[in-house]
Amino acid sequence: MKDIIIAIIKDAISACKDKGLLTVAEFPSIILEKPKREGFGDFATNAAMLIASKEGKQPRKVAELIVKEISDKTGIIKKLDIAGPGFINILIDKNCWERVLKDIETAGNKYGHTDIGKDRKVLIEFVSANPTGPLHIGHARGAAVGDTLANILKASGYDVTKEYYINDRGVQVYTLGNSVRFRYLELHGKEVEPPQDYYKGEYVKDIARDFAAKYGSNVDVESTEVIISFVDFAKDALLAQIQKDLEDFGVKFDKDEWFSEKEKLYDASSMPVLQALDKLEEKGVTFLEDDAMWFRTMDFGDDKNRVLIKKDREFTYFASDVAYHLNKIERGFDTIINVWGADHHGYEARIRAIFKALGYDDKMLKIVFIQLVTLLRNGAPVPMGKREGEFVTLRQVIDEVGKDACRFFFLMRKSDAHLDFDLELAKKQAPENPVFYVQYAHARISSIIKHAKENGISIPAYEEIDLSLLNQDEELAIIKTLASFPDIIKGCATSLEPHRLTFYLQELAGIFHPYYNKNRVVTDNIELSKARLFLCNAVKIVIKNGLALLNVSAPEEM
RNA sequence: GCGCCUGUAGCUCAGCUGGAUAGAGCAACAGCCUUCUAAGCUGUGGGCCAGAGGUUCGAAUCCUCUCAGGCGCGCCA
Q1: Which residue, A322, A370, A393, is CA-closest to A126?
Q2: How far is residue A281 CA from its own chain's centroid?
Q3: DSSP letter string over A428-453?
Q4: How does residue A135 score in pLDDT terms, banded at 50, 70 and 90?
Q5: pLDDT at A56 over 80
Q6: What's the fold here for domain A2-92?
Q7: CB 3.0-4.6 Å disulfide test: which of A52, A153, A380, A466 passes with A59?
Q8: Cα A339 from Cα A106, distance rounded (Å)
Q9: CA distance A362 to A349
Q10: Which pLDDT band, with edges at 50, 70 and 90, does A9 fall under?
Q11: Span A417-457, pLDDT tens digits
Q12: Which chain B positions come under 7 Å from a protein C-beta?
């Protein structure tokens, strides 16, 4: 609908240009928006004002010229107005809105899907928590955002690859193994000093117990082989747990979507990390100083230069980043999305430096930052001291409030804004709980449909209904809201802001519930019942499609 | 000290990439159940968009500075 109108306006501007009425040196990008006030029509465009400012003419005069040249062959436009400083307000013929209902019926569970991302390959990396502990609430928000974004991009026609980067080599996993080894010894009554900076969480003891169950109580804890097996055992156990937690959260990474740093970047025969550093060296952006190898990231906008190989010959974490991002680039993605905790924003400049130094446009890299979550219980923040291992895990929150509320709540805010997660509210079976409110609209419609069926009325086909019976303002408002759904999804996809979808669903539920309250759907008037039932079912389809993108269930009854 | 994010109604937040008289949900107040789910609905009040300049036809939105809060600034991972 929007596209058709944009095309009509573009034609009108071109016509003005052809006739020499306007110069239009630079063709403006037509923005069609929904005016805030009723009475300003269904759409408004500021095109005339944009052109006027470039040509030094009065906006209203330009608007008049454009309006005169508009030729609407489709009959979609009912009325055109010039208003305010030079807006062109457009009123759509009511009959045209009704086509939306036909679109929804035809597209069904694909309504809202578009092909704006056709032939574009996108990689989205998210969670990527180190396998040194269970997922906590901060990871969970990133998981919800990343997964939903992936769903939205897929629905928008992009070729989407999800990825979880496993940091499975280096000091951290070694420390984890060592922590398990310590608990193992403790378990067998050996008094030993705990290792430095060991992982203190209870889960380490559990893993030590499992290790003992598998390998017995008499392993030679001093042998290198056994120490390695502590590391591998612990890492594998945690990865399995992370994977399980994610799946219960509705996030599924396929087998080849787990990217192991150790296997993929430090493969002993090819050593991709070395190849990547060689490439940087070829570009002349590295140097040696104090027995270390550096990357001159300052030449590409970073605050300071960064070390790639330390003087003890170890690769830095950043060296892995170089290799990993080169790997991503070489896989041929058009867009590379990293979903990061906001505490990593200091890393953005150096990652962008990798792209620039290797001769790639860093615009292909999009970073979505996830701000911290504060859990609230009875209005007070739940204390979270990660240091002593007392963080709240994803598992605990799923167990307490359920997957649906959890996912929905994480998407109720812009991802780079702090989020207060009210546990009591999330559990509440009441309308002030937004996820409940939306799901309930779906369940309520299901209930109506069931009731109608019991009264011998099934959901009619579009051709069977008399659309003129849907003549109330509320009904038109619902239809218009349903019509905007594809634009909402598009907006989410292009801005990488999935929270817009949760807001939309709340808005839709927010106009449906009052409508329901005011109007009885199933009555003795069969024709009216059919028309309203059809409309309700359209609302149901859109809510279901929206919830599906969030991976939140759409219950038939509650 | 430098960088990033945030600052909008009593609270929690939207504000569609610069548009018209700034919105929603809670909370507060006043009402509404013989009904397809009251697990719901209707109405009212509530604002110096942190502050000050600037850019222009037009700013909550863009720029500069100030204030307040959060985070980040290792040859850590």
Answers
A1: A370
A2: 36
A3: --STTSHHHHHHHHHHHHHHHHHHHH
A4: very high
A5: no
A6: Gyrase A; domain 2 (3.30.1360)
A7: A52
A8: 35
A9: 10
A10: confident
A11: 888 888 888 888 888 889 989 999 999 999 999 999 999 99
A12: 2-7, 12-27, 35-37, 39-42, 56-58, 70-77
Fold equal for A2-92 and A430-550: no
Does the C-beta of A130 come within 7 A of strand B? yes
Give the CA A422 to C1' B12 distance in Å. 10
Tell me how far the alpha carbon of residue A406 is from its chain's centroid.
Answer: 14
- Read off the tokens for A161: 């690859």
Are A66 and A19 within 8 A, CB to CB?
Answer: no
Strand B closer than 7 Å to the CB of A28?
A: no
Q: Compute the distance between CA of residue A393 and CA of residue A439 in angstroms, rounded to an integer.
A: 26
Domains in chain A: boundaries = 2-92, 171-248, 430-550
Does the CB of A381 fall within 7 Å of any strand B atom? no
Q: Which of the given ranges, A54-63, A77-86, A141-150, has the highest pLDDT on average?
A: A141-150
- Which backbone phi and psi does A333 adopt, to 5 degrees? -80, 145
pLDDT in tens, A150-166: 999 999 999 999 999 99
Q: Which residue is nearest to nucleotide B75 (CA to C1')?
A: A310
Q: Is the CB of A29 under 7 A from strand B?
A: no
The band of A140, judged by pLDDT with boundaries at 50, 70 and 90, is: very high
Structure tokens of A484? Answer: 């905007």
**Residues comprising chain A, all counted:** 558
Query: Domain spanning A430-550: which CATH class is it, in words?
Result: mainly alpha
- Residue pair A409/A426 in contact (Cβ under 8 Å)? The answer is yes
A379: nearest nucleotide, CA–C1' criterion = B11
Identify the residues numbered 224 to 263 in chain A whose C-beta atom is closer than 7 Å to any atom of strand B: none
What proportion of chain A, given as a percentage, has pLDDT over 70?
98
